[in-house]
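Here is one chain, start to finish.
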Amino acid sequence: MLLGGSVRRQLEPEATGMTHSTGPSGERLRRYWDKSAKSYDREMALFERVLLADGRQWACSQASGDVLEIAIGTGRNLPFYPPDVRLTGIEFSPAMLEIARERASAVGRQVELRLGDAQALDLPDSAFDTVLCTLSLCAIPDERRAIAEMKRVLRPGGRLVLVDHVAGSPAWVRAVQWLLELITIPLGGEHFRRRPLRVVQAEGFVVETSQRAKLGIVERVLARKPVQAAT
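Its structure:
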């Protein structure tokens, strides 16, 4: 995830149709995330206070209807969703998913939790009104495929909500991020210099909100899948 051993969730396919997680690298990453699951919340707390601020609350406040959260992790977003959403959460790490189940029970949130691959979602087309992903695209191996899948499962006019750390605005920040990636990419597949907004635009989403803060490191994106005329 970020410094201090914090980790990022990647997504594994369900029982069939597995993609990137079937090989040795995927198995290693799964073990890495599972091992880090118990310490994840503690390690994330400082980062969220310093950089994320109310990012989770903002993201969840944009959600409505049938909602899919990609890389739900330990369920840190669960307390912030509106009470009337119908929530599905996809996660790579079984250990993190178990913590999310415990958190859902503790906060009284009904949610369907399942293992899944962000790059090849085992979900039908146009099934959700909102797709949300916070602090996770940075470690999904192919974020372009993941965003394309998010678009596929969204209904026409549906909302895409993203919050993540991205390439900073100043050159010196990007230089530091490049140095960090020398460690974080081989260790856990985490990238610091991605720009998911550009992928969202390339996929044809209509961007309604794009905000960057903290030297451009933290980005919020709210976009809609175009409503296409019936053919």
